[in-house]
Amino acid sequence: MDGRRLTVAAGLIVALVVLPASLPDSREVGPAPVGDFQALDEASPTPASNASKDPVIAAVGDMVCNSGPEEGPDRAPKYGLCEYMAVSDIVANGSYDAFFALGDEQYLRGSYQHFTDFYDPSYGRVMDITYPIPGNHEHYTPDAAGYFEYFGERAHPPTGYYSFDIGKWHVVALDTQLCKNKIWYRTTGMVHNLPGWGCKANSPEYKWLQRDLAKNGDAACTMALMHHPMYKWSYWPIREDHRIQKPFLKLLQQSGADVVLAGHWHDYQRFEPMNARGHADPKGLAEFIVGTGGDTYSPLPTKMPKPEGLVVAHDGSYGVLQMTLHPDSYDWKFVTAEGQPPFDDSGSAQCH
Q: Domains in the chain, start-ordered, CATH in brackets?
């Protein structure tokens, strides 16, 4: 998250909220999310099951500290434990077909040296199945140089946005930091301009996305990867990223896209399908925020209004989102890392 504006108190805050019911003292209410639930074994990661031969992917963002797990006085006491190795073990041991790295792969400024020292021994173990996107912390290094140098052609330089097919699904991987035109690093006060002219209709990324979606309009299912979510429950203005990214959201909705995977907020949130105007809509995009890659937690703003469409929110377990991509539908399950408080969210949905 930008500038580390949220401080995690000692004894990490843990919350599970099932919405849209009101919030009683237990902070757990309402029916279970759609889908079959299974208790996860904390002792070992849950491997992907690919008996159907449909692709099974793992996705997560906000991942690696600039120190070893549970090490570094500059990190652990201030922000909480760095548990990224346990989360990366899920991916490394899970026999997944692909890994979607949802930005902020390496803190704090995404330098090449930190990528090689810390990211590489953890999530770098699955480089051959990794599809990355940049986050704001990659852009804190001018031109995201460390990110592009480390991931090489997998990062699709020089733009950082690209698309690919997996199974019957078409996936667009976006750089949403470009939508903001600038990057501001609170610690140093550094500000520098970004190329791309935002996300407006005359921007290169918008024009590219428009062409790509038109070219792949016959895809049965479409997914977008973007570091900054469309909608969120946070202490920051709910509409901030939605307003800036709205041109992209309109294109995605018009093309019949189904799912958005995002990070940026260090928790897990799931929204029902939402349209570009910010309202629940069965023809909109279902959003999963999976900022649980092991860097730090973000406490949920339980005293603030819940945004429309939020179904589940949880701020106390590192882990990954596992998805099985069927030809016209998908299954999802949150897989907690070893040693983390158990948390389940699973279900299935049809593509448009």
A: 53-350 (3.60.21.10)
Say which residue the tokens 């928790």 belong to: 267
* Residue type for position 222: T
Rounded Cα–Cα distance for residues 96 and 155 (Å): 20
Which residue positions in the chain have pLDDT lower than 50?
2-47, 51, 71-79, 238
Separation of first and last alpha carbons in the chain = 32
pLDDT value at residue 36:
27
| Residue type (1 letter), 69 | P
CA distance 121 to 183: 28
| pLDDT (0 to 100) of residue 77 | 37
pLDDT at 195: 57
pLDDT tens by residue, 216-273? 999 999 999 999 998 888 776 545 556 778 899 999 999 999 999 999 989 999 999 9
**Segment (H or E) for 99:** strand 98-101
The total of other beta-carbon atoms located within 10 Å of residue 191's CB is 9
Which ranges in 269-312 belong to alpha helices (H)?
A: none
45 neighbors 332 (Cβ within 8 angstroms): no
Task: Return the DSSP state at 187.
Answer: T
Backbone angles phi, psi at 287, to 5 degrees: -115, 135
Q: How far apart are CA 83 and CA 69, in angstroms?
A: 5
Long-range contacts of 74-81 (CB under 8 A, 24+ apart): 78/7, 79/4, 79/7, 79/8, 79/295, 79/296, 80/8, 80/12, 80/296, 80/297, 81/12
Res 246: pLDDT: 86
Whose tokens are 């909608």? That residue is 231
DSSP string, 27-46: S--SSPPSS------TTS--
